[in-house]
């Protein structure tokens, strides 16, 4: 294939990935919600890994090949590019799992954080030690290192995205939100992303150039699909930054008029955001019965009978 076309096939996914980040940045700026912020940084870190370690190493290989540089030097440059991108890959997937937990108001386990980053750090160190030993060995670069990478990478993304999807299914089943279909579709799109990535990695054995380009396109640009469903969800369930400021001013007047306590105010805010009693309990770290007691006192003070009337009274 002509080198110009190969460069184009490497640059198109980079541009498409930047578009996905741009749209997510706008969502993050518009709504200012923790899980959207974490998801934005997931895309940023993944984009850095994709552009530097994958697209960057591919472009570097093309340029070095054209300069007729020794193959061992080319393989070494690819190893170093991927090696330096490992921390960004680890950070990106940590932020992905974190965004899911934040969506369902689940507290992140310290044990999970320590275990996750211990694995990433161990992989980074082992990769670096093996790479250095290979480069200084008499036989030059060990090509088994390159052949082993796809299997390790596939295993990693399989575990991360499968865990994310199962978490969405489990926690959304316990949620009473009528908009749960959007977050489930969001999770399912990442199962498709994972399946396509794995399939294209192994397809490189038969069609190396075409599969590499398609994999990079999927890896950097397929995120536009879950971003679309995330946008639909936010439009239906959350207020924009300007709308939130207006809501807070009305809520402040409501609280003062009906002598609502500080804790009851937090409950009212979450009720207006569409959270169930169980979700409010988990978000405020109080018992389910305490949430019911707060809700009952709010209804008595305001003279409403249900959540809909309470929400309409404020909005």
Please give a quick description of this structure.
This protein is mostly helical. The chain has 13 helices and no strands.
Largest sheet: none
User: Would you give the CATH topology of the largest domain?
Assistant: Rhopdopsin 7-helix transmembrane proteins
SSE order, one letter for each helix or strand: HHHHHHHHHHHHH
Strand portion? under 5%
The CATH level-2 architecture of the largest domain is identified as Up-down Bundle
Structural class assignment: mainly alpha
CATH class of the largest domain: Mainly Alpha
The total strand number stands at 0
Overall tally of structural domains: 2
Number of helices: 13
Mean pLDDT reading:
82
Radius of gyration: 24 Å
Please tell me what the overall shape is: elongated
Tell me the layout of helices and strands:
Layout (H helix, E strand, L loop, with lengths): L2 H29 L2 H33 L4 H33 L6 H27 L6 H31 L6 H24 L4 H14 L2 H14 L3 H18 L3 H11 L4 H8 L3 H15 L4 H8 L1
Helix pairs in contact: 1-2, 1-7, 1-8, 2-3, 3-4, 3-5, 5-6, 6-7, 6-8, 10-12, 11-12
Would you kindly provide a written description of the structure presented here, covering whatever features stand out?
It is built from 13 helices and no strands. The protein is mainly α and 315 residues long. The protein has 2 domains: 3-237, Rhopdopsin 7-helix transmembrane proteins, CATH 1.20.1070; 241-314, Orthogonal Bundle (Arc Repressor Mutant, subunit A). Helix 1 runs parallel beside helix 8 (224-237). The termini are far apart.
């Amino acid at each position: 294939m002509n080198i110009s076309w190969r460069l184009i096939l490497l640059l198109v996914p980079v541009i498409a990935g930047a578009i996905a980040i741009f749209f997510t940045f706008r969502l993050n700026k518009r709504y200012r919600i923790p899980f959207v912020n974490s998801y934005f940084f997931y895309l940023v870190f993944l984009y850095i890994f994709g552009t530097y370690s994958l697209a960057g190493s591919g472009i570097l290989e093309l340029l070095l090949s054209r300069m007729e540089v020794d193959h061992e030097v080319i393989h070494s440059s690819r190893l170093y590019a991927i090696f330096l991108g490992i921390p960004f890959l680890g950070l990106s997937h940590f932020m992905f799992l974190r965004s899911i937990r934040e969506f369902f108001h689940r507290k992140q386990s310290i044990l999970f954080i320590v275990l996750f980053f211990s694995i990433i750090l161990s992989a980074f160190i082992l990769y670096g030690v093996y790479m250095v030993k290979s480069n200084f060995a008499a036989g030059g670069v060990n090509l088994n290192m390159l052949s082993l990478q796809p299997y390790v990478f596939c295993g990693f993304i399989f575990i991360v995205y499968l865990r994310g999807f199962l978490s969405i299914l489990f926690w959304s089943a316990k949620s009473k939100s009528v908009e749960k279909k959007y977050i489930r579709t969001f999770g399912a799109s990442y199962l498709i992303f994972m399946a396509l990535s794995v399939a294209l990695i192994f397809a490189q054995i038969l069609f190396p150039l075409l599969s590499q380009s398609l994999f990079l396109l999927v890896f950097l640009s397929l995120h536009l699909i879950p971003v679309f469903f995330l946008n639909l969800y936010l439009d239906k369930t959350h207020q924009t930054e300007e709308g939130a400021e207006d809501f807070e001013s009305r809520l402040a007047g409501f609280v003062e008029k009906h002598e609502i306590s500080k804790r009851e105010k937090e409950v009212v805010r979450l009720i207006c955001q569409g959270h169930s009693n169980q979700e409010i309990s988990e978000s405020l770290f109080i018992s389910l019965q305490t949430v019911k007691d707060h809700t009952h006192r709010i209804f008595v003070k305001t003279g409403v009978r249900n959540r809909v009337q309470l929400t309409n009274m404020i909005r």
